Amino acid sequence: MNIILLYAQLMKIIMALLQVYVWIILAYCVASMAVGFGILDIRNNRFLMSAFTTLVRLVEPVLRPIRAILPDMGALDLSPLILLLLIEYGIPYLLRMIFRLIYSSQGL
User: Where are its TM segments located (predicted)?
Assistant: First the structure.
């Protein structure tokens, strides 16, 4: 039973961290749209520039491989949507499969 409790706690921690990252992705999307439409001018505000740069550094390395796979659709960028779907559905599925492999290999 200890492995089940450990898995449950580990899953909660991983999912909480992923939810924080989901909010970072959403903030990146909103900020990039606001900059793109000219609502925010990051050239004249150092705080906004540093906040936007931080968001870009956190999100772009993960989006780059997804963009390499997706076909070019002009100005429409679906890579954040794909990443959010992977975080919400793909990662919990993989974690459950890993737990099942560990659980079955121990003969519990």
Answer: 20-40, 78-95
pLDDT (tens digit, 9 = 90+) per residue, 49-89?
999 999 999 999 999 999 999 998 888 899 999 999 999 99
Whole-angstrom Cα distance, residue 77 to residue 87? 17
pTM to 2 decimals? 0.86
Q: Which long-range contacts (CB under 8 A, 24 or more apart) does 22-29 make?
A: 22/84, 22/87, 22/88, 24/55, 24/58, 24/59, 25/59, 25/80, 25/83, 25/84, 25/87, 27/55, 28/55, 28/56, 28/58, 28/59, 28/80, 29/80
Q: Tokens standing for 62?
A: 């993960």
